[in-house]
Structures are given as structure tokens and as C-alpha cells.
Write a structure and sequence with these properties.
Elements: E1 21-27, E2 30-37, H1 40-50, E3 57-62, H2 69-80, E4 87-90, E5 93-96, H3 101-144
Antiparallel strand pairs: 1-2, 1-3, 4-5
Length: 145
């Protein structure tokens, strides 16, 4: 490809605008961090520059002004408990998640749900592998006949 004469207007365009949102950083299919921002792109570049959190993708949801970002972020952190969310905001204070018994109890159900999800995924994988082997065996039988 000749890059010297390439027309940049043919490239995909991403609109960079201020977005008030809750964002989710992912490593594979796992949510590893939940944050909030009124300027998502700026915040994303900060995460990249910090080189602390390992993530490979991002999802976000725009949040209207009438919804409190702090409370929504706190709720989602409690629900999903991402590995990089070590502290959670309570008003102007922050509490460490890993050492707070009340929050640990809240997260216990989430741990059980995650384990159940893992078991379901493992079972699906085993069933796919079994079907693949069955197809291979049928193919071999058909080739013999």
C-alpha cells in the first residue's frame, strides 16, 4: 500500500467530545476497573499513560446530569468488584474495599454469581469440545464408508 498518497478522509473517524459517563475497562471479557468521568477520552488517556491498569478494551454508558455519578459508580463497583477498584467513595471519604467487612458481605453474593458463571462457561466449553470430537469421528466414519 502506498501510504504517501493515502487519503486520511477515508479512515474511520472517532468523534472526540466530552462525555459524562461511567466507563468499564476490560481485560478480555473481565471488567477490571469501573470509573466515572465528565471527559471520558481525557480520562482514558490518563489510564494509558499511568501504565498501572492492564486493559485491552473499554465500554461506557452516557449518564444524564440528573443521575449522581458517585452513587452509580459505587453501586456498579459493589456489584462487579473489579480488581483495580481498591477504594470506593462514600461522600468525601474513601474506604478500602478489601478491608471493609460490611462491603465484603455485600460482595459475597457477587463471588457466588461469578463462580456459577465460570462453571456454566466451563460446561459450555466441554460441550463444544465434545461436539467437535463427535463431528471428527463422524467425518472419519464417512471417509471410511
Amino acid at each position: 500500500m502506498n501510504y504517501e498518497n493515502y487519503d486520511p478522509s477515508l479512515l474511520p473517524k472517532i468523534e472526540v467530545k466530552r462525555i459524562r459517563c461511567i466507563y468499564f475497562l476490560y481485560k478480555g471479557e473481565e471488567i477490571v476497573y469501573i470509573g466515572q468521568s465528565i471527559n471520558m477520552f481525557s480520562r482514558l488517556f490518563q489510564h494509558i499513560a499511568e501504565k498501572i491498569k492492564e486493559f485491552d478494551s473499554l465500554r461506557y454508558m452516557e449518564v444524564p446530569e440528573l443521575i449522581d455519578l458517585d452513587n452509580l459508580e459505587k453501586h456498579l463497583i459493589i456489584k462487579y468488584r473489579p480488581v483495580y477498584n481498591v477504594y470506593i467513595k462514600f461522600g468525601h471519604d474513601s474506604k478500602q474495599l478489601r478491608n471493609n467487612k460490611e462491603l465484603e458481605d455485600t460482595f459475597e453474593l457477587t463471588k457466588i454469581q461469578r463462580k456459577e458463571r465460570e462453571l456454566v462457561e466451563e460446561d459450555k466449553k466441554k460441550r463444544r469440545e465434545k461436539r467437535k470430537k463427535e463431528k471428527e469421528i463422524l467425518s472419519i466414519i464417512n471417509n471410511i464408508l
